[in-house]
Amino acid sequence: MESDTMTISSRYCGLPPRLATRVGAAGGIRQGFTRHMLGGFTLAEAMMATVVLGIAAAGVLLPFTTGAKVRAEGMRRTLGAKLASDLMEQIVNAPFEDIVSNYDGYSEAQGQVKDATGTVFTGSNYTNFSRDVSCQYVYMPQESGAVAPKFIRVTVRVYYSSKEIANINRLVGE
User: Fold this and answer.
1) What's the number of CA atoms in the CB half-sphere (13 Å) around residue 1?
2) What's the half-sphere exposure (Cβ side, CA atoms, 13 Å) at 12?
3) How many CA atoms lie within 13 Å of 163's alpha carbon, on the beta-carbon side?
4) How far apart (Å, rounded) are the C-alpha atoms in residues 83 and 159?
5) Strand ranges (DSSP E) for 5-105?
6) 112 burial level (CB within 10 Å; 0-12, 13-18, 19+)
7) Beta strands in 19-128 (DSSP E)
8) 8 A C-beta contact, residue 30 and residue 21
9) pLDDT tens across 148-163, in order?
């Protein structure tokens, strides 16, 4: 009569010969296998997999956060250039005689940037912007200092959080 246990050949279960084991008559595993060999993860393995996936996810997401910062900086620079251009347009349309007296030293404090009608921009996009203007008479080499200047160099600077982000220079003539 056969015994109540039998040896499982490694060629039937696909395991190396050293892992072959004995199975009882009831089919229960007796020796040689651990829970890990039967398929499944230990807590330590699951935690290591979580750490590795977390590091990989951080590496994948980093370019997206950097891209968002670059995009925001580009939007600020674009808005700053528009604010500088709008103020320059307003200055150029003023009478030549009034440019220096009205705009030299002109400045708008942070969060107090105004549109062409003099109304302060109230949108949250404008809260950290400020701008200033400087005007200088320009004399041509052939002109003497006794003749009234025919040109003014106008510079408009726009700042975001006290950092210059846009600068426009223009030579305005009579």
Assistant:
1) 2
2) 5
3) 6
4) 10
5) 5-7, 22-24
6) middle
7) 22-24, 107-108
8) yes
9) 788 899 999 999 998 9
Q: Cβ distance 87 to 135 under 8 Å? A: no
C-alpha dihedral sign at 101, 104, 93, 110 = negative
Q: Which residue has the tokens 């979580």?
A: 50
For the segment 55-68, the average pLDDT, to the nearest whole number, is 82
Residues ≥6 apart with Cβ < 8 Å to 155: 133, 134, 135, 167, 168, 169
> At residue 24, what is the residue type?
G
Tokens read off for 46: 């699951």
Which residue in 138, 135, 133, 150 sits closest to 86, CA to CA?
133
Mean pLDDT of the chain: 80
At residue 5, the 3 state secondary structure works out as strand
Token pair recorded at residue 166: 């846009």
Q: Which of the listed ranges 43-52, 58-67, 113-122 does the model predict with the highest average pLDDT?
A: 43-52
Cα distance between residue 96 and residue 102, in whole Å: 10
Positive or negative CA dihedral for 76, 158, 125, 89? negative
Nearest-angstrom CA–CA distance, 66 and 81: 23
Q: What are 75-112's pLDDT values in tens digits?
A: 999 999 999 999 999 999 999 888 998 999 999 999 88
